[in-house]
Design brief:
Length: 116
Amino acid sequence: MPPKSPPERRDLFPGALEMMVLRILERQPMHGYALVQRIQAASDELLQVEEGSLYPALQRMLKEGWVQAAWGVSTTNRRIRVYSITKAGRARLASEITRFERMLKGIQLVLETELV
């Protein structure tokens, strides 16, 4: 099997990072670096999220009340901040998924339209 090419550096559409983070946290609380790794692995290495984008997004989500954070200790005995989704975060995730599905449907319709 040929080696995978490195992930493309591409901007995500507004709200995409938050939606992915909330979905992952819905399944399991996680620290920031683990979120970066999970997004990359779950996207089959197609998406690359820089920590410089993730941590400001997590701060915004904390401020909005979509996630909460608690200090914990890693397997290597280092202090880590573990994030988990809140009830408000679950509601936000549901609304973002609905919005995303509508947007995707619209894009698909445009792409499938025959040009005259």
